[in-house]
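Tokenised fold entry reproduced for everyone:
>
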Amino acid sequence: MRRRIVLGTAALAVGLATALAGPAHAAGSAVIHVPSDFDQSQSGTRATGHYEVVGSGLRVWTQGSTSTDKVAEYVDTHIPLASVGEPSLNVDNNGTGTTPPGFQLVVDFDGNGSADGILVGEPTYYGNDWWASNSSAQFVKDGAPSHTGGSGSANHGTLDQWRANFPDAQVLAFGFSLGSGVQGDWTINAIHFAGTTYTFADDVILSGKDACKNGGWATAYPTFKNQGDCVSSFASKGKNKN
């Protein structure tokens, strides 16, 4: 039996004019193309963690409960933490596991352009309390709104509290994580972030240079500048084989 869990509250209608680096989107809706829109330099997916597009959702699953059972991916953005509202995941359980994927925000807490840590939202367990990853910089941990137990780490608080403590914080990427060490099979139907609802689609890969003609180049994702750019990409692939 499939169980639907809506993680968190609906994202606030803010930041609609913010341009994201990866997925193409209109106000209020967007499509994350898989895998092109995932930042591979930040990927946390391990050997026995997997994902695939199913309809307009993303199935994520792990094979067991070992250290290699993790699937985590991120989409690049650049938006003030003050403008992200209350991000959430809309998920279905596919019959395995009781721990749903958590929402993850890669944050530049001091506004200097580099990531300082990750805020994790797991409302099934902690409500609207977001906790800092253990890998977060010490100044992030020291500046956390709360240092008590009862959350995912000793350094935690609501997003409003994090925003108050770090008014210059910028979100550099948003995403999800299942595991590590958690066995589960879930479908992420949508990601709600900064007033935009994101669904998923596979990359559109053309079969060859002939497919670039008659406007075919414009249907591809990742995108091409024009037909010539599309044709040239296949010529380059041919040279690389020699």
Remarks:
- The chain has a mean pLDDT of 89.
- The longest strand covers residues 71-80.
- The radius of gyration is 19 Å.
